[in-house]
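Progress report, Aim 2. The chain analyzed during this reporting quarter is listed below.
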Amino acid sequence: MPAGALERAVDLLGRLGQTGPELTVAELAADAGMPTSTAYRLLAELEQYGLVQRSSDRTVALGTRLVALGRTAEAGLRERLVAPAQPVMARLSDRKSV
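Predicted structure tokens for the chain:
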């Protein structure tokens, strides 16, 4: 079953996150095993939403909107995991001190 457009776009984002902004669209497409035209189309869509940005040197990088999304995800993670664990960790620390 061929991968859907969303799956391929997420794959490109993941590859950019792993390799950094040194890749051109053609190199990224080759790495992902997809036609360059498909990668251009998907990256153009992602760029419209600020998820990727293309540089003047023809390389592609993760976009600044991902920073905001990451911060929101991190805040949610703190709320769901870190905050509830703090009292338990404090009690364990108190027991260890005794």
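Residues 4 and 10 are 10 Å apart (CA to CA). The two ends are 60 Å apart (CA to CA). These observations will guide the mutagenesis work planned for the next reporting period.
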